[in-house]
Structure formats: C-alpha cells, structure tokens
Amino acid sequence: MMELWTKKGVFLLAKLDGGELPIFVIMAGGRGERLWPRSRRKYPKQLLKLVGEKSLLQQSVERIRSLTDVERIYVVTSIDYVEQVRQQLKMLPEENILIEPEGRNTAPCVGLAALYLQSRFPEEDPVVAFLPSDNLVHNPAEMRKVLMAGLDYAQQADTGVIFGMGPTRPETGYGYIRLGEKFGEKDGTVFHQVKAFREKPDSDTAAQYMEGKEFLWNSGIFVWKVSRLWQEIKSHLPELAGGLEKLRPYLGTTAEFRKLAEIYPALPSISVDYGILEKSRYLTVGSTDFGWDDLGSWSSLGCFYQQDRDGNMVKGYFAGVETKNCIVDSPQKMVAALGVSDLIIVETDDVLLVCSKEKAQEVRKIVEKLREEKREDLV
After folding, report:
1. Neighbour tally for 369: CB within 10 Å
2. Mind listing the pLDDT tens digit for each residue in 92-116?
3. Domains in the chain, ordered, with CATH?
C-alpha cells in the first residue's frame, strides 16, 4: 500500500499496490424500519442525524473521503431519496449517485453498482469496497487502514474480503461469521477462512459466541474485484445477472433509466449475504476492530444515549421513578414513567411508540400493520 501525505503530515490519499486509487460504493437505499417512528419512508435513518452533527450517510462518506478521489466514490440509493442524497453530498458528481427505481434488497444494489463500474472503468479491473450507510465507527483512522489492507489483499489474492468485528456484547440482532484457518496478515489485519455464517442468534447462543472468540460480528463491509464479483453474481444469482445484462446496451444513453425501471422490478429481491457471500468459495474474513456498530434497532442506537443510574438510556426529556433499563427518545416532550422496565419509548410529532426491548428487532411489524391499514402517512 502506498500512502500520500501533505506537507503537514495529514493523510491525503492511499493507492493500492497496483498503483490505482480504490473505489468505494456506499449502499444507501434502505428504509430503516426497525428505527420507526424516527426513521420514515421519506426520511430514512441514513439521512438522519441520529448520532453526531452529520447524517449517517455523510459520516460514511467522510470516513473514506481521504482515501480516494471523489470521482471514485459512488452511492446507490432509492429514487425516493435522490434529491436528499444530492443535497447532503454536494461534492459527489451527479452521475456517481446510482438510482434504484425501487428497493430490491442488497444483492440487486451490489449487482447494479458492479455493472456500472464495469462500464465506467473498462481499462481497469477495479477493486471495490462496499459499505452500508448506517454504521457507526468510533475509530475512523483504524477503519481506513483496515480497508486499505483488505483492498490490497483482495486485489492480490483475487478473493473477496468481508470484515468481522470482535463482539463486545451478546448481540442478538447482528449476523456472525465463524472463523476458520488463518490465511495471512497484512498491516495488522488477520485474514481467515470463512467457516460459516450465523444469523441473529438467541441470547444464550450470542453469549457463547462472545465468550468463545471464534465468532465475529458481520459488519456488512466487503471488498471484491469487480470481475470476480460479477462472476460470483452470475454463478449464484444467474437471474440477477441476466436481468442486469439487459441494461448494459443502454448505459450512457437517454433510455438508460427507462430501461432500468422496466428491468428492476423483476430482479430477485434477496440480500447479498444470502445470495452471494454465504455461497462463495472466493471469500475470506478480515478479523479486526475499529469500533463498529450497526445502528439497526432501538437497542443498538440506545447504547449511544445518556445513561442514568437505573440503566435508562435517554435522549431528550425524561422523568423516571422506579423505572429501569428503558430506552427513551423524546426530543420535544417530557416522558414520565413510573414502575416500568425494559421498554422502548419513542415520541415524534405524530406517533408515540411503546415497545418491549425484547421486541426491538420486530418494530417493522408495526410498519407492516400500518401499511395494511392504508396509513402511509405514518410510515
């Protein structure tokens, strides 16, 4: 890895061993329904300032901005969020915001990005890092170092790399990766065989994973050469590859988005984890820790709120008496609670959510019910 520095010693850009700058794709099309009612269809979590003074999307781009030219940063998002993304990321070229006509989960998102990158970098076989837009990272400098190590490893070994984090709590809302044999090490990041993926374990199993040191949290951050990634899509999701191939002749033409809008609804709706990562023989896991958290539910977000002596995690106004271990998000109104515990309480202008903490991963069921009742104004 070759690093470039300013005269003041500030990290500026980092080239891969092959000499080219890396490419980053930020996946920003989700709705964040487990963080309802704060996260809504029109204002999903990645566009909100949930932790800090910038949105999660802005933080995601800011973390990797120093590693490459702005022309090599892409964002994939829904047509519903394009204007908000443009407003939040004014430095990005307009053509680097790739638009999904509708949400089809993460595998089509990744496939669409791979197709565009093949078209836009025909003289390269670029190695690309895919990053979710809704993560929180406590040590961005370490993350940048780890990403460059993974990008170099993927380029040289022609294998995908997914990053795993050592669990700090028995989290039941995350996916896990089981480590296999050690393959190598680069710049402090250790690369292992992916022995197995495990999805959202129960609390006892999650505690065992944490104690055993054999399982890592699946960060959802992965790296691949575009050529190898496209081969994996064709191998494991041929219907997706075939559908996207229909778009290739139209790329760069005035009919591009119209054709994409015809193709996209018929693509399989499947996650990149289930569709590709868990099936691939060309994938290693980079074992690292840069202070990662997935803000996927109120339980994970509440960990960043102020905590009182009774274990209540609070953002906003709260008065609790004989009340323990609650998560309260109420920036406008006072929430008063007496004799309750283990609740999630969220107040917005038009909704009050009261939920058991053990049901934090199921908040989207309420969203589904509201859709059934034709209350689109609330979702």
Report:
1. 11
2. 999 999 999 999 999 999 999 999 9
3. 2-297 (3.90.550.10), 306-362 (no CATH)
